[in-house]
Amino acid sequence: MLEDAGAADRALRHVCGLHNAGMKHLLAIYSSQTGRTRTLLEAVRAGVDEFADEVELRVLPALQAGLDDLLWADGLLIGTPENFGYMSGAVKDFLDRVYYPSEGRKLGMAYAVFVSAGNDGSGAIRAIERIAGGCGWNRVAEPLVIKGEPDEAALALCHELGQTLAAGLSCGVF
Ligand SMILES: Cc1cc2nc3c(=O)[nH]c(=O)nc-3n(C[C@H](O)[C@H](O)[C@H](O)COP(=O)(O)O)c2cc1C
Questions:
Q1: Low-confidence residues of the chain, pLDDT below 70?
Q2: Position in ligand 1 atom list of the atom nearest CA 82
């Protein structure tokens, strides 16, 4: 019987350690004009950092990320605002640049997406999922849409997303 959350956490890490001794790599690409997506990403980062011994996180603005970053990654997190019913131009630019050069090389790679939106977010999610499907990536978490200014509940969801991604990567379940 596990007595507390700390014991459960230690048990999970022990099991993960037995299954996978290697460091896993998580790439997070994002863009943000007014800072909301960036704020959400910081909450994700805090969740991932709880697994810092097992998962290395590389956070890059989408315009600065490229093929080498993608090839390095075992998992990809995409954070974007919704712009005109779509992902941001910067995130689209990243996907445009890596699509052909990475074709067939990241099949089954774990990915997740979160969107900062004014009042919708569905168009950005739909577009990213379509492209990710074309790349053969594997969605490992429900897409997260945060509307408006990030509040405590939104930050908690993002923190949980980071934990989920890191735990899954470190255990090798993705
Ligand atoms: C050019 C532009 C287009 C936008 N289009 C949409 C949209 O189609 N749907 C929506 O829900 N919000 C839209 N928004 C609002 C942003 O998605 C929202 O403010 C978001 O939180 C901004 O995130 P950021 O601070 O990371 O840039 C738009 C904002 C801008 C600047």
A1: 1-21
A2: 17
